[in-house]
Amino acid sequence: MLDITKPSGGLAPGQTQRTGHGFQALAGLALVALPVGLLVTLILWPTVRMVTATVLVDGTLSPERYFAFFNDAYTMANLRYTLEMGLVSALAALGISFGLALYLRFSAGRIATMIHGLSLFPLFVPSIIISYALVRFLGPNGLLQLMLEQVGFTQYRTPYLTPVGPFLAFVWENIPLPVLVLSAGLSQVSDHAVEAARDLGAKAPRILWEILLPQMRRSLLIAFALIFMGIIGAFTVPYMLGPPAPEMMSVFMQRTLGNLHDPASAQVQAVVLMVISSIVGGFYIATMVKSSAGAR
């Protein structure tokens, strides 16, 4: 009598059947082939060519273009302004986002739902719309100035075309993503730990410092890295709201390439900014790897 419960083919004792594993591996490689190919073609290969072009002068290796970059006072002023704007704006957005995430973590009801929706609203608004809205609201003869004049305040000084303008836009634009990241991190904090601390008489600042922040360190670093890298590479906001000098590196690169017709200098500026972004991105990747290893 034929026993259909036994596999045909006479597998040896302890041997497992691997039918289809090779096909699954090939299918997996096929799925990642297109995105990897696009990554190599559109990003990695042009980046390698750009970096190579910046260190080749008349066919020989030379760092003179980088010496020129770091010895130029105006260029260094733009780089410092970019890093300062990125750092200050990222910290401000992170602080506001963390406060919102804390409120949403320990609150419920319609008001909390409304605040959550408003905090995510800039996520669905393009940068150019945010910039134009702030120009019309904060600029000369804008809505804010007209409202202040109605109550007798006539000493308004617009932040438009000053460092304050892009700072406000960057903070508002970069609130939604860290709110999502930090809310996800706070959801992992046990309610029992918080309640136990309250039962022992711990006040809110101590609970924040000794319970919440230690468990939120990775989420805070991830959120900061995402905000900072987005700000130092932004173009629309500083182009529409920022001062003419100093200017952020993205605007400076565009002007160097488009107005001054100096692609070699623009490439050096791009490489320097890319290295800075890579350093911050390295911390982000290391944090993600540690988080994944801890989860296992």
Précis, in short:
With 296 residues, this protein is an all-alpha fold. The protein is 73% helix and 1% strand.
Write structural notes for this entry.
It is a single chain. The protein is mainly α. It has one domain (63-295): MetI-like (MetI-like fold, Orthogonal Bundle). Helix content is 73%, strand content 1%. The chain has 13 helices and 2 strands, in the order αββαααααααααααα. The chain has helices at 21-55, 64-71, 73-105, 110-120, 127-138, 143-150, 164-173, 176-186, 191-199, 204-232, 236-241, 249-258, 263-295, and strands spanning 56-57, 60-61. The protein has a two-stranded antiparallel ribbon. Strand 1 (56-57) and strand 2 (60-61) form a beta hairpin. Helix 1 packs antiparallel against helix 13 (263-295) and helix 8 (176-186) runs antiparallel to helix 10. The longest helix has 35 residues, at 21-55. The chain is globular. It starts with 20 loop residues before the first helix and ends with a helix. Residues 4-8 have low confidence and may be disordered.
Observed structural traits:
296 residues, mainly alpha, MetI-like fold, two-stranded antiparallel sheet, globular
How is the topology of this model organized?
Elements: H1 21-55, E1 56-57, E2 60-61, H2 64-71, H3 73-105, H4 110-120, H5 127-138, H6 143-150, H7 164-173, H8 176-186, H9 191-199, H10 204-232, H11 236-241, H12 249-258, H13 263-295
Antiparallel strand pairs: 1-2
Helix pairs in contact: 1-13, 3-4, 3-7, 3-8, 3-10, 5-7, 8-10, 10-13, 12-13
Q: How many strands, what sense, and barrel or not for the largest sheet?
A: 2 strands, antiparallel
What is the count of structural domains?
Answer: 1
The CATH architecture is: Orthogonal Bundle
Gyration radius (Cα, Å) is 27 Å
Shape by Cα distribution: globular
CATH class assignment = Mainly Alpha
What's the count of strands?
2
Order of helices and strands: HEEHHHHHHHHHHHH
Range of helix content: over 70%
Considering the protein shown, what is the CATH homologous superfamily? MetI-like
Give the integer mean of the pLDDT values. 84
Q: What name does the CATH topology carry? A: MetI-like fold
Total helices: the number is: 13
Instruction: Please give the order of strands in the largest beta sheet.
Output: 1-2
N-to-C CA distance: 48 Å
Low-confidence stretches: 4-8
Oligomer classification: single chain
Beta-strand percentage?
under 5%
Please state the structural category.
mainly alpha
